TrEMBL record:
Full protein name: HD domain protein
Keywords: Hydrolase, Metal-binding
Gene3D superfamilies given in the database record: Hypothetical protein af1432, P-loop containing nucleotide triphosphate hydrolases
Pfam families named in the record: ABC_tran, HD_3
UniProt-listed InterPro entries: ABC_transporter-like_ATP-bd, HD_domain, P-loop_NTPase, YfbR/HDDC2
Length: 282
């Protein structure tokens, strides 16, 4: 037995362990922490196994799974590039290309060249398999965001049109049926008719702890409408504006920021006021 190929394979496997340390912006669905890129790749592999029937064209599921397991290996060197940060994306392609050449070269030539070619195919979206894989790569964080009251969209201050433009084309190209469901969830997220759900989704609080009428309203990274505020909203329609006045007036943050509809309430109370008071129709 020639030990050289085995040593290269083991070296590659040791190297890719580092992907577990690369944190993405997307959180787990329970919002307890950010997911890492290895978890993301594993999750996408299961997306492919589960959702292959919804691909725009017949796909080789095993090839799609392979693509998704390796597609972010380059982040070991290049790091995770935030999807909504145009500045961070400068030079991304070059960084990832260099990383791919280094990491796949750890393998014996036949394996390394095959995986590198598969990675390139994914990046280019040059096959039905690759287009479906890219659709899933875009779908997973979208579903995490709709499940976590907006997730990364809140920090990036994205509106519905921006979300549709950034996610829709890639998902629809690889899996139109999945985009139809994703678009429905996006609409539901941005057009909830429940005031408390709508307000809770738009509020993002950092390092803020204030009390109103002996009820803890906001603390830390959570939004929790205390009993007093809930009662105000449930009494009649004027409760909505009353709650708004409490937040905009009495609850001036000591530190941190309060985001409402893409505006910093502390810095732009007048701009934020109309958005919080607005309740979309069904």
């Amino acid at each position: 037995m020639n030990p050289a190929p085995l040593q290269g394979q083991l070296s590659f496997l040791r190297e890719i362990d580092q992907l577990k340390r690369v944190l993405r912006q997307t959180t787990l669905i329970d919002a307890s922490r950010r997911e890492n890129s290895a978890e993301h790749s594993w999750h996408l592999a299961l997306y492919a196994l589960t959702l292959a029937e919804h691909a725009a064209a017949p796909v080789d599921v095993l090839r799609v799974v392979k693509m998704l397991l390796i597609h972010d290996i380059v982040e070991i060197d290049a790091g995770d590039t935030p999807f909504h940060d145009a500045t961070a994306q400068a030079g991304q392609a070059e960084r990832e290309q260099a990383a791919a050449l280094r990491i796949f070269a750890l393998l014996p030539p036949d394996q390394g060249e095959a995986l590198y070619a598969l990675w390139q195919e994914f990046e280019a979206g040059s096959s039905d398999d690759a287009r479906f894989a890219k659709a899933l790569d875009r779908l997973q964080p979208l579903l995490h965001n709709t499940a976590t009251d907006g997730g990364t969209w809140n920090a990036a201050r994205l509106n519905e049109a921006q979300v549709v433009a950034r996610y829709g084309p890639v998902i629809e190209r690889g899996a139109p049926a999945l985009w139809a469901e994703a678009a429905r969830q996006v609409r539901a997220h941005f057009h909830s008719s429940s005031f408390l759900k709508d307000a809770g989704r738009m509020l993002r609080i950092e390092n803020l702890s204030k009390r109103y009428a002996d009820h803890l309203v906001f603390e830390g990274l959570t939004h929790d409408f205390g009993p007093g505020c809930v009662a105000l909203c449930e009494q009649d329609s004027t409760g909505k504006s009353t709650l708004l006045n409490i937040i905009a007036g009495v609850m001036t943050p000591d530190t941190g920021t309060v985001w409402i509809g893409g505006h910093d309430l502390a810095g732009e109370p007048q701009a934020a006021r109309p958005r919080l008071a607005y309740v979309p129709d069904d």
